[in-house]
Fold each of these.
Amino acid sequence: MATVDEPRAESPARRRQAGGREPRRGQASSHCPMATGGVAAPAGRRRLAGVLLLLLCLAALAFPWVFRLPYHRDLVIRVFLYAMLAQAWNILAGYCGQISLGHAVFFGTGAYASTMLQMRWGWNPWVGLVAGIPVAVALSLAIGSPCFRLRGHYFAIATIAIGEIVQTLAINWDFIGGARGLTLPFQKDSLLAFQFHTSKYPYYYIVLALLILCLLVSWRIEGTRLGYYFRAIREDPEAAQSVGIPITRYKLIAMAISAAFVSAGGSFYAQYVLYLDPDSVLPLSLSILICLLAVVGGVGTLWGPLVGAALLIPLSEFTRIQFGGTGRAVDLLIYGALLTLVAVFQPAGLVGLLRRWQRR
């Protein structure tokens, strides 16, 4: 009866004759690398990322006390606001793969809901901000239910059409001010009234808190089953559906979360400028800008929308100041050329570029 020889341990002398080298005590062999070297580097990078994040938060908190000019604070407030809007859009488009070009509908819904509740029925603006969120969520479900039957660019075209319809209705609806818009009544400075005329510090920290909340929700989504379902739907909807994922339900969940944060941003905007009309809160250009910030920064990433807003909003303001008075739209040409360069040479966005440098 044939037997199988048991494998014999290779002696150190034979290993040296074969050209190998016996690992020293405490040193990993080439066939079984030690885990400490592979774990130490990621752990170090995580610590470095944590330190950088802490420094970034401290810098954000200290910024209005260092740069005291109202213009600087106004610019950063708008950066934070648009970063939050782009991050909310990223939940639907970046994580779930549904490119929407009609998010201005939810922005305008939040702005009009909180303003109308305050002006018509005397509601507190904070209550109006919270009340506008379920209105925007309900509207997102009404829009998403039929539109998610479409895919790809057809879905994007449908959202553009819905945005134009909603803006036209708002222009012709006198109950919400029509084309004239609405001017919020001035009140004394107070946190309860959500109005601060002598200083922009409260607005700064309120919008910073909204941005941090949106980032935390996005970060939480990334590491949960919900985030895995979103990415599965983005990569291959048919495969996701074949393994039992109800793709329409999760698309609606992504759209509802996105609409909630965009609505809160619209309510904040109404209280910040104290005036709104369909051209300021429901334009197609706003939906496209929200999309561009996420795409340039890095769509589908946690920090991409913030990076895109931190670059493009000041850049837009700089080109407008330096070249906007020429009457030849030079500022728009420069702005568009930079966007084109990023889209052509770095499709993964600025965050993708930073990650590529990090791997080197």
Amino acid sequence: MVSSADILNARILVVDDKEANVCLLDRMLRIAGYTSIASTTDPREVCELHRKNRYGLILLDLQMPGMDGFEVMEGLKEIEQGGYLPVLVITAQPDLKLRALQAGAKDFVSKPFDMAELRARVYNILEVRLLHLETKRCNQALQETVRELEASREVIRLKILEEQERSEQELALAQETQASLLPRCLPRFDDFHIHAFNNPTRYVGGDFYDFLQMSSGEFVGILADVSGKGMPAALLSSMVLGALSMELRSGTQPQEALNRVNQLLCEKSLPFQFVTLFLFLLSPHGAGQFISAGHNPAYLFRSANGKIEELVSNAYFMGMFDFAAYQSRTFQLHKGDILVVYSDGLTDAQNEQEEMFGEDRLLDIIQREAPLGSHALEKRFLKSIEDFTQGMPQTDDITFVVVEKR
């Protein structure tokens, strides 16, 4: 730790071409309790003096004949290879303050000098400087400790490689499991255009979608987001999809199918695992019903008036509450209407500035592109996501489904 005595005993160099200013600063610093103060009126001496004495602080006038303070700081940068310049600039010109800070100075003090301001700024810079040096010494000691542990490094390295290999194998298996949940090809219906996209993260989330043709002529679409990553999420996704598919293919109504799968998850999944899900059922004529189990809203674009409707419900996540009951709500797709279902990985996608893609941007794309049809909308989604993220790795799967009534 840095003490007050360390700060007051630190070496200080005063640099000003006017002897009167040097004497005034020397006196003010000694009154404040500083004991090791040197000075020079020749800016060309500063770098050599600092090379020999390594001052904790240099009070540097900016406007001096022959060599100004900015040139002095450039020379000091060659000595302070760590990039930290212990410089407090002195100036009466306000427009030079910002330039000095940009050049590497740590602070500034204005002329004419104010005793309270000078004491505060000098003390603060010296404290930071000494802490910086103390950190460097601690880092050197740490490096020495690391060197002493070199004998065991190879064993540690091999263990890490073994763990990485095991993790990569698990990750590859999880990726295969998740990929197997997605349809190999999208279904073709006379009355609908269907588009779907899934971009899993490297860490393998639990997004999946599926479509089931019912014996009644209706079809069911599902988009789900399973909590967690890796193999646990992939296994839970597989269980959810398998259970739902079995229930729906056996003729169970969607709401009862979700009630039964929720009971299964509450019994079989881990306490911290849950699923959000959006399920919709459509007849060839566009009559439909949907259930949103804790999922973000789906959007329905109306081609007749260009408006966008939200399809939302207040149902619980699946797998968290065994008392949850799921009820379907009705909707109608007319010719040219487009249904957009997505996971929150789409709206939560981030760019390099850590900004999120967001619902406003999503709605704007739907508003502008949906009148051109579902194919154009899908292309614009993909292009917008690519332009926004610029290849930046994401922490969640990006998945969406687009359905247009012909």
Amino acid sequence: MPPFRLVILAGAFVSVSAVPAGAQTGTFGKTPTRAPLEALAERGANPNGPFAKLNVPQRDSIIGHTRDLLGVRYKWAGVNPAKGLDCSGMVKYVFAKLGIELPHRAAELAKLGGAVTKDTAEMRPGDLLVFGKGKRISHVGIYVGEGMMIQASSSSHRVVQTPVVRYRPPGGLQWKGVRRVIALDTAVVEGEPQVQPPR
């Protein structure tokens, strides 16, 4: 299997590296955290473009880590599941599980990566859904596939799974967009059958 390579789209390099050192602390448990550039340097550069890449099991681990948080209580500014999470704190915590340090602000997360059409047929697990009013982004969730997202909901007071097309955020927030901050590595995953070329 090729070395573990993680992908953060180009926008993440500029925005995330600018996060103050003091804002890059506060993860739960003993999970190590690293700035994105350090994490990517350890995994090697992607010769095919500006991102590192996740393979399918790594991408699916984001979904698993997100689902593990279902039922955790909502706490404004929370980044620790034992004490409670807010929406961006949930995103920060999940991605930190893979050694990726993301900002703890929905507005900053909305600038990372690349834009994706607001269509569940185009969206992939791990995409971030951002919500706001006017030009202000104030809420974020993680798409987990099959038309569902997981979010730390202030109105439900906990982390919940919600159908994307039926979600009506409180306070008149609107679905503003989808951001892809990871890319899927199309290389063959270890253990999957390889197709032999015709002779």
